[in-house]
Amino acid sequence: MSDTNEPLVRFVDVQKSYDGVTLVVKKFNLDMQKGEFLTMLGPSGSGKTTCLMMLAGFEPATHGEIFLQGQPINNVPPHKRGIGMVFQNYALFPHMTVAENLAFPLQVRNMSKSDTEDRVNKALDMVQLGEFGGRRPAQLSGGQQQRVAVARALVFDPDVVLMDEPLGALDKNLREQMQYEIKHIHENLGITVLYVTHDQSEALTMSNRIAVFDDGVVQQLAPPSTLYEKPENAFVAQFIGENNVLSGNVISIDGDSCHVDVGNNRSVHALKVNVNNVGDTSTLSIRPERVVLNPGSEYNNVFEGKVEELIYLGDHIRTRMVVCDDSDFIVKVPNSGELGQLREGDTVKVGWKMEDCRALD
Amino acid sequence: MSDAPLVTVDGTPLKVSLGRAKRKAKIRALLLVAPLFLFILLTFFIPIMSMLLRSVDNENVAYTLPNTADLLAEWDVDSGDLPDEAVFAALAADFKAATVSKEDDINATKVGTRFNYEKSGFRSMFRKTNKIFEKGGVEPPYKEAFIKINKRWGDADYWRVMQREMRGKTDSYYLAAVDSGYTDDGERAMNKPGKRIYLKLYGRTLGISLLITCICLLLAYPVAYLLSILKSRTSNLLMILVLLPFWTSLLVRTSAWIALLQKEGVINSVLVSIGVIDDANRLLMIHNATGTIIAMVHVLLPFMILPLYSVMKTIPPSYMRAARSLGATPFTAFTKVYMPNTVPGIGAGAILVFILAIGYYITPALVGGQSGTLISNEIARHLETSLNWGLAAALGALLLVAVFALYLVYDKIVGIDNMKLG
Amino acid sequence: MKLLNRTLIAAAVSTGMVGAASAKDLVVVSWGGAYTASQQNAYHAPYMAANPDINIVNDDSANGAVAKLRAMQEAGNVTWDLVDMVASDAILSCDEGLAIEIDHNAVLAPAPDGTPALEDFGDLVVSPCFIPQIVYSTTFGYRKDKVGDTPPTSINDVFDLAKYPGKRSLEKKPINNLEWALLADGVPADKIYEVLGTEEGVDQALAKLDTIKDEVIWWEKGAQTPQLLADGEVVMGSTYNGRLFSVIEEEKQPVGMMWDWQVYDLDGWVVPAGGKNEADVLEYLKFATDTQRLADQAKYISYGPARASSAPMVGKHESLGIDMAPHMPTAPDNASNTLLYNYEFWADNVDDLTEVFQAWLAN
To answer: N or C, where is chain A less crowded by C-beta within 10 Å?
Structure first.
């Protein structure tokens, strides 16, 4: 990451409405540093693509200002912004060959023929498509088209590259492979990428930071590990990774921790994250891998659980049980042999630590 | 791998086995196509073939006048003399033979009509002579007897035409279709300038059709673009407006154009009343080529909009966005990326409009006046009024050739695969 | 049940189902509009009333009928029983074997005084296949409000742009136009076809037409000139006299008639060869072309009956109540200068002269 204070991309209080009635983007603020790989993650309709389109210049912001390298760009047309973009359907020009597609951004910049050729060849080599320059996009596989699209967005050295769900059309294996390729290109070239996806594992794999979108608002902006370990609200906890949820009322607050009544006088000791007053309702978030069976004394939350369903997944056994009236409580039991005796209908003790249980809104 | 052919488990060669499995599918495909194939054969292919044959057919002459044909062939045209008595006698025998059956009797008159296309006067000459023979015929000497029936029998020029057109296949319809014919010396040559018409009409037809195609393209392109980017509810509504012309009959629409465009019509009256033009200089927008162009552009516009729309609909908006993000100005993005992708639609629309324009004759007949008449009007006239179907067929065949030639040129330039009708 | 039966019978009677079920259809092809209506009133309706086993079906496709007839005959399925044609088309049909020859005296009714049909029709029987019906003329109409105080009275006025400026409509054919051009150029009427038979004569006629070529709107359908006159698009124009009658007397447009050198033409019946109801059609023709019927038709349209014996019986217009005799093209006041369509000349020369004429138009 760059150590200058000036962010490369900056959204200030950006709002967007299409119909004048509802806000698609409610209040968006973002500073993005040079060299960063930032992902906007969220369900469809959450406003992430709209933010991307506003940065690219295809949608005007209804309110607020967008800066690129310190300059306001609200009134700069798209072709003068110097932003590369990879589209979901690649948007490769079907009437041009692969090489012509790559040469297009250079030709419109009046680059000399020999320089254009050099750059195109270099870009093709970068995505390992050196021999495919003469082909039409339709003659390439999905993954190859994807790479051409990436190469085309990079070939003219844009300040920022925007990627709008670029891997959405690929099958799972190819998608994972491409995630690594894009990540490596990012690392090797030191480019700045703003990436949009609704696939959380994609976001976790590739990003320096992730902005989780919901309902037109950024719910949390943080590096992947922080998002997973320390979700700041119930939406983020739910959206990122697997999560057990218990809900109840706060009965006491004690510094960084609190007690929450989850019914039937069962009190859970949890980390106080964003509950403020006694009596507030709270959602407790516990990651399945942090729950243990037959806990020792260091576990301050211990309850009874009834096994409902066992799914054998090799390295662990995914166990669905009823805990504190929640019948969807998942526990990942490591496949260490001796616990293979667990049967559906058994009642066992389950426990988790206070620090692993986050009391959210 | 060995070269031995692959076999199935029971030992039949793989190819035989595969062929057997495919035969059923082939028969089914054939049965599915058969009705359409028969329909096309009966309603399109056979009529066109018979039309092409008609444009050279001349069998009836030698069939009706067999004896004359034989003897006349030996007559020396350049001698300046009439054919001798033997030829007249043969002619009398042929006319006599023709009276035996009703059908041959009519054929004798038809030969006169046929010869009349080559030289005026044959029709009444044959009709009168035939009447005489129906009532009993003439007595020798035949030469004098024939000349008494009609003095043209004594004119060697008529005999010259007869000698030439005794052939079973004739090129004279095609010659006529390119403003040519035979001189008195029997040479092929262009007609006198005052009698040349078809080549000029071919040229005018191609020119006006091309112009109509261009105007249609210019008008249709923005409309189709708008339709393709609007929400489907709005665009469906607008599409109804585009298709509206199809719902009214051609004659009604054309009459409406007359009411609108004529000298005392709506447009002129409005222009006069708001003072754009004065009363004495009303615009002539109908009964000339302008009228033909305006009315035909209106009639044919949907045929351009529809293929353009269907192609534009499939061009994702991301192409333009990609081009813009790559640094292209809106104009460059349009000319370098959007437009090339609409070429299949432009090609399909242009070919459709052009071919339809070439064949239209009702509209030009009603609003075209003298400068807006097209070759199809002449074809229609020969089919309906003059009944010279041979010439109509020759004119149609040449038009077909011209269209086909243009089609090949189009294929060379744009490529016929690169066309999308919808 | 009884009620239902009665209703069904009533419905059947009222729609003519009972009668029609056993009746034979005769397909009669004519020009449509007012003309077919006049035939319906004068011929078809009374005939069907007297012969309930015959049902006459009108088909309005007389335009281009010769071509259609030829196509039908080539296909071996002639569905028409009787066709209304102008005389020149009847001659062509006869030459082509599309129509049957008629023995006029044997088939048609004599005049009331016993004159045989052929004599009653006189020289209007221009082809053995042709049964004359009406005499019509092609003549000029003009806009009364656009000719000042001196309405045109002579064919010369059509060619006089100085005296009568403005557009005129003429038929897009050489026929009539070439004759009028020569008349206006001073050629005597009895020399017209002699002159037209030479190339110089044709050039002379076209040269005369050249003087007004830029001011001519060429029509192809009979309805065009009446419409152009009604819209004020033309000052004067040629068309059939019956069309002008309806513009003037029925639609009350400010249009006047100019009868100078009107060209008589004939319209009548031909019986298609290969028709399926020949005997019935001939029976019908005997009725429909008798003296009274031809005179009756003039009650509905201003065309002259083709029989000499019908002329004295022409009465008043059925709905307008005006005397029809003065509106007939054959009325003495209208017929001071007339030309009869020269069938023989045009049969021989129509192909050639049409080509010359069309070439002249295109240049």
So the answer is: N
